[in-house]
Amino acid sequence: MADLSINLAGIRSPNPFWLAxxxxxxxxxxxxxxxxxxxxxxxxxxLGDPIINTSSRFAAVHFKGQRVAGxxxxxxxxxxxVEVNLREIRETKRxxxxxxxxxxxxxxxxxxxxxxxxxRVEAVGVxxxxxxxxxxxxxxxxxxxAASGQQPDLVEMQTYWVKEVAQTPVIVKLTPNITDITVVAxxxxxxxxxxxxxxxxxxxxxxxxxxxxxxxPHVGGKGAHGGYCGxxxxxxxxxxxxxxxxxxxxxxxISGMGGVSSWxxxxxFMLMGASGVQICTAAxxxxxxxxxxxxxxxxxxxxxKGIASVKDLVGQSVPRYSNWGDLDLNYQVVARIHQEQCxxxxxxxxxxxxxxxxxxxxxxxxxxxxxxxxREEDCVGCNLCSIVCPAEGAIEMIQxxxxxxxxxxxxxxRVLTGLNRESSEAEVRSS
Length: 431
Hints:
The protein is α/β, with parallel strands linked by helices and 431 residues long. It contains 13 helices and 20 strands. The strands form six sheets. Strands 3-4-7-8-9-10-15-16 form an eight-stranded parallel β-barrel, surrounded by eight helices. It has a four-stranded antiparallel β-sheet with strand order 5-6-14-11, with no helix packed on it. Strands 1-2 form a two-stranded antiparallel sheet. The protein is globular and about 80 Å long.
């Protein structure tokens, strides 16, 4: 079997599956149960000055029969005394010395506050710290969480304060509620971060009850924006991980999270640059034992690929992620319909005719039976027909080779610039 162990900035764990700082890591009882189930690590629910949580705090978005396609919460950091948490953290690490135990922290942006909590937490024997600069609700209104995370200079300064006294690796957790996450990631690195983690939750409102007109969730008829996570946010998270992984100035390991629900999701995050993953919503939906399926699936995948260590996945797809201007404009695919697999639902024809490029014809054979056929000369290879097709294998996107060399928009602009320069120089010489 492949080696699933990871080392994230000096924090070691037997597998890359960690529980994220969230309700599942609120107590020693929970984290110990998770470790018994096989989780490689856990980030303890954020510690700071204890708060008062609301009693209605979770909501979910269900889509077309799928439960919890997205998850929304207005819960804040730990509402239990710091002393109680520290006692349970010490006991949990004693019972599971081989698991990664990281503690999430959030305090006011004051140097002495950071120094105090870092020293208290490290004294009980943790493996690392995660600075929560991402929580988008409640704490942000108090000047913490995303309120700090949206200001690169504050991220850098507070990271520096923590590094002044920290004896364990420091991970900086980034907010996605920002224009360019790489800017904040760079400042975290400038502040001395040993790693970054992303993404925290996205500003959201889960919905509105059409009978009562209350927001979902609501607290006595009042609502507030919360943090969105779960499978629906995975594409956003994957992009942000990839952007940081391909940014040279973000030269630290990445702990990836945001919609990781299976071993396949974990592999995608690792291929795009994450050294390990953190999981919350999937555990809340299905329980801690889902990690067993993730471990087995990842083991089988690596064995099938002939890969000895999960660490060999990290960043392998990053060089394939680029800017639009670097894409080959001469590369072309067209849709091809395999009639033997087609179920004649005509969804491809409708989608193409109404919303794409009108290149799928609805025809009839000699027996009067209808069928669909692509006019390949008019197909632009947009993929829409294959996306909406419910029959596996009925539509295939085929590469069409016209013998043209690769040409990106950037290359084209460079050629045109060169031609214009040569033309200008020739005009000067002729005059």
